[in-house]
Design a protein that fits this description.
Strands 3-2-1-6-5-4 form a six-stranded antiparallel β-sheet. The protein has 136 residues and is an alpha+beta fold. 24% of the residues are buried. The protein is globular and about 40 Å long. 20% of the residues lie in helices and 38% in strands.
């Protein structure tokens, strides 16, 4: 099994495509960026499976509660707390969808017409390719 970091202290999981098309994710921790050779949805699925759930189960639960939508928040009980991860767009867009941890975000502000800067509680902040008004 590939080395997958615990994401309980992560603020974001960002997709990254390498020079030859290999797809990775960057896990944004408070003071560290960790490159993982998996899509961000696979990282979340792995973490959910550790607690007896799965990405499909989390999506089904969100759909049951929220109704029909394409951008479901993912709720995970990552000991000792509950984490809520939300995608910046449909998770089918594996090359551009960023997952953000609701409890690790301090603030967000306008960056450009098509992007937003997201401030976490640690040293790392990220720019996501989503307009500010869509994230508010």
């Amino acid at each position: 099994m590939k080395e997958i970091p615990n994401i309980s202290d992560a603020m974001a999981i960002i997709p990254y495509t390498a020079e030859y098309g290999e797809q990775y994710s960057i896990v944004v921790q408070d003071d560290e960026l960790i490159k993982v050779p998996l899509k961000n949805s696979k990282i979340l699925d792995y973490q959910l499976r550790l607690i007896g759930s799965s990405m499909k189960g989390a999506k089904d639960a969100a759909k049951l509660v929220l109704g029909s939508a394409s951008m479901y928040p993912i709720v995970a009980k990552l000991h000792p707390k509950i984490e809520i991860w939300f995608p910046t767009e449909s998770i089918r867009n594996t090359m551009t969808c960023v997952f953000l941890s609701l409890h690790r975000i301090k603030d967000m502000e306008y960056y450009t017409d098509t992007s937003t800067i997201v401030y976490g509680y640690g040293a790392n902040d990220v720019v996501v390719p989503v307009p500010h008004n869509k994230l508010r």
